[in-house]
Amino acid sequence: MSSNPAGDDEIRDPIREAHRLWEAHGWLEAANGMAMVTSIVRVHQLLLERVDAVLKPYDLTFARYEVLRLLAFASNGRVSMTRMGSLLQVHPTSVTSAVARLERQELVERLRRTTDRRVVLASITDHGREVVEAATVRLNEEVFEQPGLAPAEVLTATRLMTDLRAAAGD
Amino acid sequence: MSSNPAGDDEIRDPIREAHRLWEAHGWLEAANGMAMVTSIVRVHQLLLERVDAVLKPYDLTFARYEVLRLLAFASNGRVSMTRMGSLLQVHPTSVTSAVARLERQELVERLRRTTDRRVVLASITDHGREVVEAATVRLNEEVFEQPGLAPAEVLTATRLMTDLRAAAGD
DNA sequence: GATAGATGCTTGGACGTCCAGAGATGTCGA
DNA sequence: TCGACATCTCTGGACGTCCAAGCATCTATC
Question: CB 3.0-4.6 Å disulfide test: which of A31, A147, B134, B164 passes with B33?
Fold first, then answer.
């Protein structure tokens, strides 16, 4: 179809291309917002790829890592399911799912609060503590200390994301 | 445990709290990066919530919307599966999954390229075009024109996300 | 105390994403 | 022509997220 020597329809950056098409269709007021949203979606995907690659040797995903990290921080290493969902800002069923897998991996135990037997407490095991500490060291080294932006820009990006969260009622 | 009158362990912003804990554990070099990554993950979640809410009346998700939008832009309304995965930057199986659902909804048809019968072309139907144009109008109005930041900040955020994508080899 | 409503958690199902592997088709060199 | 290899797509399964619905337990009201 094309005479482009590097292949047909070479597109450098799909997001830039989408922005161009939005403007070409007259959606001028929306083009920049579309580009921002699409960029965030893509960055999210790339960052999670990096994070999950680091966590893979520990047989963890980011979702389960966050649960373990939260429990390791908690006093007594115990937090109720509902409270975890609230702190991690995920739905109760996601907590159920994550804790179920962590329990199978023997990184977490389930306990029932005696004063209110409806409440399930997730409790990190000694092995869970070892795993989460090792995983945190690696995550810090390989992702969080090298997030892909200069230190000042990291702060700017964080501030903008915080504003976006606030605008969405977070 | 706590004497906080508004309940125990009131936490305003889980991300700020995580940042504090990271510093308290001496992970100073990683704390800002952790906060940025966590913020992006959260913003992604909130934005997709907004987008999916707008698309719900059209029985679309963002993933399927992107496929439809791409097809509507393409000449003849046709694109091969592999090329869609490349342009949308998702795995081939995600394209298969999205096109399968769109086909059931009669928004897309599958054709086979005669000159190379390995290639499947997704082709948008007239009904698909109607749906995607209507959905685009709503998305522009309700999300992309009101992304939650001032216009200048939208540009800054987009630039930072673009730099992050470049750093990740996008 | 008994019953109605609230709360905490789980289950089952739909969808999206990724991986591993398989099947069909094309291409290239012996 | 034939066989080896590459390419395109799909299937099946694991995991995460969300929704709707259900069960167990607690609380409040009479």
Answer: A147
- Please state the rounded mean pLDDT for residues B26-42: 96
The CATH architecture annotation of domain A59-141 reads: Orthogonal Bundle (1.10)
pLDDT at B2: 36
Region B20-32: mean pLDDT is: 96
pLDDT per position as a tens digit, B109-145: 999 999 999 999 999 999 999 999 999 999 999 999 9
Distance (Å, whole) CA B130 – CA B108 = 12
Q: With CB atoms and an 8 Å threshold, state whether B164 touches A155.
A: no
What residues of A are in contact with residue B147 (Cβ under 8 Å)?
A: 32-33, 36-37, 164
- For the B59-144 domain, the top CATH level (class) is mainly alpha
Question: Domain ranges in chain B?
Answer: 12-58, 59-144
Q: How does pLDDT run across B42-86, given as a tens digit for each residue? A: 999 999 999 999 999 999 999 999 999 999 999 899 999 999 999
What pLDDT band is residue A92 in, cutting at 50, 70 and 90? very high
Q: How far is B35 from chain A (nearest CA, A)?
A: 7
* Contacting residues of A for B36, CB less than 8 Å apart: 147, 149, 154, 157-158, 161
Q: Does any strand D atom come closer than 7 Å to the Cβ of A97?
A: yes
Q: How far is the CA of B6 from the C1' of C21 (A)?
A: 55
Select from B22, B52, B160 the residue whose CB has the most chain A CBs within 10 Å, as the one to mutate to test that interface. Answer: B160
**Predicted TM-score (pTM) of this structure:** 0.91
Secondary structure tally for chain A: helices H, strands E: 7, 3
Nearest to A50 by CA among A128, A132, A150, A146: A146
Smallest CA–CA distance from A21 into chain B, residue? B73
Q: Is the dihedral of CA A40, A42, A45, A48 positive or negative?
A: negative
